[in-house]
Amino acid sequence: MSYRFPLQRVLDVKEKEKQQAQQELGSSLKKQHDAEEQMSMLSEKREAVQHRMLQPNKGCKASHLHEHQRYISHLDQQIVQLQGYLQETRIEVEQKQGILIEKSKEERVWQTWKQELFIRYQQEASKQEQEMLDEMASIRYFRQQQIDVD
Question: What is the pLDDT of residues 88-102, one digit of tens each?
Answer without folding.
Answer: 999 999 999 999 999
